[in-house]
Design brief:
By secondary structure, this protein is α+β, with helices and mostly antiparallel strands. The protein contains 7 helices and 3 strands; from the N terminus they run E-H-E-E-H-H-H-H-H-H. It is extended. The N and C termini lie far apart (57 Å). The model has no long low-confidence stretch (mean pLDDT 78).
């Protein structure tokens, strides 16, 4: 190996470090105020699959998640609701065959009911009609994740594809095929999900 070949022995023991600790109690005051009047809204939509892994459905759910995130962001900036933090995530659980979308909204307690109604209206609107501006804005963001040259040259993404293939029997797809599918998605394709 790369270790030196020498008969000398080295002693690696060191004196313990003694920390000087404060001998008084630490008192922190949390006055009642805005922090206690906030609430968190969490919603999860689980789309179980009876069949094998369908990568097209996973990509559609990622589109929908990005659309929902943009709409949730509008609650704060366009509708001026008491929303402090929003997030939307998409997961696919291969062992359970669940495709999940999760929404998280931190908001003021006073406006919680209004925000819940806004979220339900927003979801109904997405089921009925996805606006062209919203769709193409989201599509441009999604396309960035599926450019085939970038995926081919990214070891981490390729390793993930190989892991999914060997661990869960998911088909190994050429990045060009996935990119072509992503570019072919239309707003009508997302309404069925």
């Amino acid at each position: 190996g790369n270790l030196p070949n020498t008969p000398k022995t080295l002693s690696c023991s060191a004196d313990p470090i003694i920390w000087d600790l404060h001998k008084t109690d630490i008192v922190k005051e949390f006055p009642a105020g805005r922090g206690l009047q906030n609430t968190k809204i969490r919603m999860k939509y689980v789309h179980p699959s009876d069949s094998m892994y369908d990568w097209r459905e996973v990509i559609k759910s990622r589109f929908i998640t990005k659309l929902l995130y943009a709409k949730l962001d509008d609650l704060r900036f366009k509708k001026k609701r008491g929303v402090y933090f929003v997030n939307a995530h998409q997961w696919y659980f291969p062992l359970m065959k669940w495709n999940t979308i999760s929404l998280t909204v931190d908001c003021s307690f006073e406006e919680m009911d209004i925000i819940l109604d806004d979220i339900e209206t927003m979801i109904d609107d997405l089921k009925g009609n996805i606006g062209d501006n919203d769709f193409y804005y989201t599509a441009n963001r999604i396309y960035q994740n599926y450019k085939s040259p970038e995926i081919r040259n990214n070891n981490k993404k390729m390793q993930n594809f190989l892991y999914q293939f060997y661990r869960f029997d998911e088909p190994f797809l050429k990045p060009e095929k996935v990119e072509e599918y992503v570019r072919s998605i239309k707003p009508e394709d997302l309404r069925d999900w």
